[in-house]
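Section 5: illustrative case.
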């Protein structure tokens, strides 16, 4: 079969490019916004128990225990919770189930999670990118002015990635009030590091979908569990798309880990505080080194140095076995996104940066 066959199908589709996952060598990974801490010991125990009992059997098809545990945590109903194999998969179902056949376009910021344009192309969803303000904050004006005759949905990350800037819940509610006939999707992958969740608003606004993940603040990127939250009628659209695969693709081990993670509030609060404290340390130190840093409500910071080239800094850090994320595209090509590691990781980074800048690059 010729390449023409599949190239006609995938067309211009460019795959999402994840941060480097080194296969060898001792790198400090500050490039993928994972947690530097192990998952909750209670989640580890629950997963070990699941491994030793019942792996020969299929998992709970509707992921009901997980949906019940998460619903209890957020004081909503289990039919308002959709579980995905990572929030990337929940997002895929949102694009496929809610956007694809709408016959209208969707809106998202020009600087945001790069999976949105990837999914839009994959599912043939027309889209328009709305520029962020010059300070990288999200200006609501174009979204408030959108016409529901043309726009099916608005999707943005709050706090935003890779910029780390958060939008207040009052603004999100303002948008929901102004646009009752447009689906509003708020991706809260990083919300636990200083943002405000919009989940309580799903009770009031039938057009709201909130996305969350266990990959960041719950230290469980390895088990791939993410969620969509919304009123049951919206979640039903996702379930229908998913049903072609029969059951929730969340295996027994992941289900057990997810439930236990939500039950260990103490560990969750402790690790997120450690990350936020290290973030304040890192921010102050890189500012001292001359970097300009955006306000952060996430487990990463977004920074640029007015004198030094970002790609060169990233390459020099790699020589020090430190990986950070550099995006090549304008207008953020002079920025670096740095994940908050342990306090020691942050100190290593500061030492490496001061050495690199003092030598000049
Ligand atoms: N949304 C945003 C904004 C992200 O940065 C990420 C992580 N790359 C995700 C969703 C997906 O995370 P996961 O699939 O691990 O849940």
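Designed sequence:
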């Amino acid at each position: 079969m010729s390449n023409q066959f599949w190239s006609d199908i995938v067309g211009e589709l460019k795959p999402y490019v994840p941060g480097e996952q080194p296969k060898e060598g001792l790198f400090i990974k500050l490039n993928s916004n994972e947690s530097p801490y192990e998952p909750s010991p209670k989640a580890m125990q629950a997963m070990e128990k699941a491994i030793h009992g019942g792996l020969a059997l299929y998992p709970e098809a509707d992921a009901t225990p997980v949906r019940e545990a998460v619903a209890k945590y957020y004081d909503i109903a289990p039919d308002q919770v959709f579980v995905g194999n990572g929030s990337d998969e929940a997002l895929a179902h949102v694009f496929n189930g809610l956007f694809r056949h709408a016959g209208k376009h969707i809106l998202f910021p020009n600087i945001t999670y790069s999976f949105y344009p990837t999914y839009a192309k994959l599912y043939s969803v027309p889209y328009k990118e709305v520029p962020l303000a010059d300070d990288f904050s999200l200006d609501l004006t174009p979204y408030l002015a959108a016409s529901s005759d043309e726009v099916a949905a608005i999707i943005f990350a709050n706090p935003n990635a890779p910029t780390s800037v958060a939008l207040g819940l009052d603004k999100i509610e303002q948008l929901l009030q102004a646009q009752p006939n447009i689906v509003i999707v708020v991706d809260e992958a990083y919300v636990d590091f200083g943002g405000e969740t919009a989940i309580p608003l799903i009770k009031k606004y039938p057009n709201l979908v909130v996305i969350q993940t266990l990959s960041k603040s719950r230290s469980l990127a390895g088990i791939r569990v993410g969620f969509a939250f919304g009123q049951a009628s919206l979640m039903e659209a996702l379930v229908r798309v998913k049903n072609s695969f029969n059951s929730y693709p969340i295996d027994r081990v992941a289900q057990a880990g997810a439930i236990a993670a939500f039950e260990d509030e103490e560990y969750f609060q402790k690790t997120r505080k450690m990350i936020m404290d290290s973030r304040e340390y890192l921010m102050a130190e890189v500012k001292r080194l001359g970097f300009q840093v955006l306000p952060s409500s996430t487990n990463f910071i977004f920074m640029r140095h007015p004198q030094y080239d970002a790609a060169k800094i990233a390459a020099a850090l790699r020589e020090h076995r430190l990986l950070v994320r550099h995006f090549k595209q304008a207008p953020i090509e002079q920025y670096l996104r740095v994940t908050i590691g342990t306090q020691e990781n942050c100190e290593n980074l500061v030492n490496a940066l001061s050495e690199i800048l003092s030598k000049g690059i």
